[in-house]
Amino acid sequence: MSGSIRLHPELGVNPRLAFCPRCGEDTNDVLLLGATNRIYRCQGCDTPNVGKPKDGCGRCGHYDVPFERELGPSEKLPGSICDPCKEELQTHQAEVEAGGVFFKCSDCPTTGVIKAGHPFAEKVREHHGIKAPGICGVEFSKAEGCPSCSGT
């Protein structure tokens, strides 16, 4: 039967509350996992997958995705992005289209935008030859002056 959920023998539809994968706040999502109650971790990108992926990792497509563990009794899972994060992402997108530059840190989860008109944003765009409204970004590390984790 298409669209049906295979029930877990003890947990039934196995409902799980969800959190925003971006900020970690609770969302109103309820995930019905049914018999899917295991985490498999991709050896290519280290992403956890709920249930054994048939077509490789959901993120990178890698096929080496071994069983890691059973889900905990009240474990929450990542769901959809929450409304405040959606609004922030739209604001970031508009700033980048105006000439700003996306940034992320390789050492911490910080992401953001260097505002349009900032000398650093202009230098990054000039260096890469990407004019607004083209998408442009840069990656920092703690050693390279991440605004969040480098302490500068």
Write a structural description:
This protein is of the alpha/beta class and 152 residues long. The chain has two domains: 15-78, no CATH class; 83-140, no CATH class. It contains two helices and nine strands, in the order E-E-E-E-E-E-H-E-E-H-E. It has helices at residues 83-97, 119-128, and strands at 15-19, 26-32, 38-41, 48-50, 67-70, 77-78, 101-105, 111-114, 137-140. The protein has a three-stranded mixed β-sheet with strand order 2-1-6, with no helix packed on it. It has a three-stranded antiparallel β-sheet with strand order 4-3-5, with no helix packed on it. The chain is elongated.
SSE string? EEEEEEHEEHE
Summarize the amount of helix as a percent range: 10-25%
Bulk shape: elongated
Number of domains: 2
- Biggest sheet layout: 3 strands, mixed
* Uncertain spans: none
**Number of DSSP E strands:** 9
Q: Helical element count?
A: 2
**How much strand content do the residues show?**
25-35%
Adjacency order of strands in the biggest sheet: 2-1-6
Radius of gyration, rounded? 20 Å
The average pLDDT value, as a whole number, equals 90
Short description:
With 152 residues, this protein is of the alpha/beta class.
Layout of secondary structure:
Blueprint lengths: L14 E5 L6 E7 L5 E4 L6 E3 L16 E4 L6 E2 L4 H15 L3 E5 L5 E4 L4 H10 L8 E4 L12
Parallel strand pairs: 1-6, 7-9
Antiparallel strand pairs: 1-2, 3-4, 3-5, 7-8
Main features:
3-stranded mixed β-sheet; 152 residues; 2 domains; 3-stranded antiparallel β-sheet; alpha/beta; 2 helices; single chain
